[in-house]
């Protein structure tokens, strides 16, 4: 039995109907996926007018801040539905893995042995919440949303000296302050990102099979990450399709027990890939010796063709298959579709070829990989691995870029919010303005046309609903005249609406 409790007028007006309608399908999705039944006879979802925690996965009685659970039937747009689906899925997952629902499995059915492995609850749930959300809202793009909302933000948090590892030793977790500090982006987003990578190199079939075994053995009890590794190893040993370069524990401990993450550097001429911890080379405190190495799964593409997964299990290794010819059409792309939790630093030869490819056929590189390629090069510039000219070279193709989530990331790097008040004082501002406006016009006119003629046509465009307001605000700030005109038109239309008079 599934029920939702809310204020009378909210129920009467149908504000909780959407959440109620997706809860059953999400439960069924998780039960079928994990082959583990929800053990309670009922679940109640309670919408509270004021709830600072946002949501809480109490077993059988989940509580939510009402704004995270309510959806106006008159609201046609996907972004609101997506947010509710993600949150509901997370809480259900705590029942089994879809965060609030997901915690019901990964936090309630099986609970971590101690707080140092909190990511087993929250990280796994944060991964499955996106699977659940895209199940009930199939028009959402799982890989785009996951990279934009989960991986990219935590890569920006996980690159400082002294950042903690995902799994700490038990003796480090003492007192309420240290406990509360664990509820951060490392636990949630890095945990989800590592899970994404793990599922990718195992294949989802083996990963889910291992999770099912783990959940069934530790139902109504406690487990630590080694218990999870043991069950994954059992599944890996029982088949011969997926071969790993080391034990599951050795591979995964390199990601969960070490802080930070690696950056891979590819030399196209020699086929050499090396790794080091991604740290700010401009910061004197980060010039100390850091000898962390990871066992890294590398998905890669050559000239548009996907290649077999390979592994980097030492600080440097030569891959003869990655040596290229003199043809400018011979290029390599690593970490395709964000399969691994790391950044990539290409040599100038490969970057030149990727720039040429993007200018002539940007769709030859998947959208998520285009996002990642540009995000990586801006981060590499910021941290002293490469020069700003390299990053700008990769943006020359942007007049042909039609993905709004990629444009949002570009503007976030070139026109950061914390510099908007001062950027116009810099000598480079007129050149930057001219450079950006020249390239942004095609995608601007595409969306401006919908806004003027048929905004309802954007009801399934998730990223338009999430980022279009900020996108237009930035273009108006840059002085795009038609954007300023559009803003005036929208304001006049709003003022003429009888509802607001």
From TrEMBL:
The active site is at 91 (proton acceptor). The keyword Zinc applies. Residues 331-498 form the ERAP1-like C-terminal domain. GO terms for biological process: peptide catabolic process; proteolysis. Gene3D superfamilies: 1.25.50.20, 2.60.40.1910, Neutral Protease Domain 2. Binds 1 zinc ion per subunit. Keywords: Aminopeptidase, Glycoprotein, Hydrolase, Membrane, Metal-binding, Metalloprotease, Protease, Signal-anchor, Transmembrane, Transmembrane helix, Zinc. The keyword Oxidoreductase does not apply. Pfam families: ERAP1_C, Peptidase_M1. InterPro entries: ERAP1-like_C_dom, M1_APN-typ, Peptidase_M1_aminopeptidases, Peptidase_M1_dom, Peptidase_M4/M1_CTD_sf. Zn(2+) binds at residues 90, 94, 122. The record marks 188 as: Transition state stabilizer. It is found in: Membrane. One of its GO terms (molecular function) is zinc ion binding. Residues 18-255 form the Peptidase M1 membrane alanine aminopeptidase domain. It is a single-pass type II membrane protein. Belongs to the peptidase M1 family. PANTHER family: AMINOPEPTIDASE Q (PTHR11533:SF31), PROTEASE M1 ZINC METALLOPROTEASE (PTHR11533). This is AMPQ Aminopeptidase. It comes from Atlantisia rogersi (Inaccessible Island rail). The lineage of its organism: Eukaryota, Metazoa, Chordata, Craniata, Vertebrata. The gene is Lvrn.
């Amino acid at each position: 039995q599934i029920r939702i409790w809310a204020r009378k007028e909210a129920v009467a007006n149908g504000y909780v109907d959407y959440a109620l309608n997706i809860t059953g399908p999400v439960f069924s999705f998780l039960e079928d996926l994990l082959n583990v039944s929800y053990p309670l006879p009922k679940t109640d979802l309670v919408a509270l007018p004021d709830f600072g925690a946002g949501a809480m996965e109490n077993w059988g009685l989940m509580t939510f801040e009402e704004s995270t659970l309510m959806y106006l039937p008159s609201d046609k747009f996907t972004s609101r539905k997506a947010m509710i689906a993600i949150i509901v899925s997370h809480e259900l997952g705590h029942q089994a893995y879809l965060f609030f629902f997901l915690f019901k499995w990964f936090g309630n059915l099986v609970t971590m042995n101690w707080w140092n492995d909190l990511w087993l609850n929250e990280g796994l749930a944060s991964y499955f919440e996106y699977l659940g959300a895209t199940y009930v809202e199939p028009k959402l793009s799982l890989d785009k949303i996951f990279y934009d909302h989960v991986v990219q933000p935590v890569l920006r948090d996980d690159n400082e000296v002294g950042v903690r590892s995902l799994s700490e030793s038990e003796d480090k977790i003492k007192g309420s302050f240290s406990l509360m500090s664990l509820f951060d982006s490392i636990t949630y987003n890095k945990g989800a990102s590592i899970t994404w990578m793990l599922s990718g190199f195992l294949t989802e079939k083996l990963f889910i099979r291992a999770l099912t075994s783990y959940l069934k053995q530790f139902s109504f009890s406690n487990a630590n990450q080694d218990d999870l590794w043991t069950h994954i190893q059992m599944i890996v040993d029982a088949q011969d399709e997926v071969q790993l370069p080391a034990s599951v524990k050795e591979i995964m401990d390199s990601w969960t027990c070490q802080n930070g993450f690696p950056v891979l550097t590819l030399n196209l001429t020699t086929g050499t890939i090396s790794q080091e911890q991604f740290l700010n080379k401009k910061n004197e405190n980060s010039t100390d010796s850091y000898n962390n190495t990871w066992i890294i799964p590398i998905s890669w593409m050559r000239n548009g063709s996907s290649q077999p997964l390979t592994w980097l299990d030492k600080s440097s290794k030569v891959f003869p298959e990655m040596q290229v010819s003199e043809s400018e059409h011979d290029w390599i792309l690593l970490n395709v579709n964000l399969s691994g939790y790391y950044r990539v630093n290409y040599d100038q030869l490969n970057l030149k070829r990727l720039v040429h490819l993007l200018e002539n056929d940007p769709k030859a590189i998947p959208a998520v990989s285009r996002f990642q390629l540009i995000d990586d090069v801006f981060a590499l510039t910021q941290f002293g691995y490469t020069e700003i000219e390299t990053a700008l070279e990769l943006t020359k193709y942007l007049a042909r870029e039609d993905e709004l989530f990629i444009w949002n990331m570009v503007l976030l790097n070139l026109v950061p919010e914390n510099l908007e008040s001062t950027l116009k004082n810099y000598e480079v501002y007129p050149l930057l303005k001219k450079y950006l406006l020249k390239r942004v016009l095609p995608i601007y006119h595409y969306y401006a046309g919908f806004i003027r003629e048929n905004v309802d046509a954007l009801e399934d465009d998730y990223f338009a609903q999430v980022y279009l307001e900020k996108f237009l605000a930035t273009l108006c700030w840059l002085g795009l005249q038609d954007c300023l005109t559009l803003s005036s038109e929208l304001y006049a239309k709003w003022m003429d609406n009888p509802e607001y008079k």
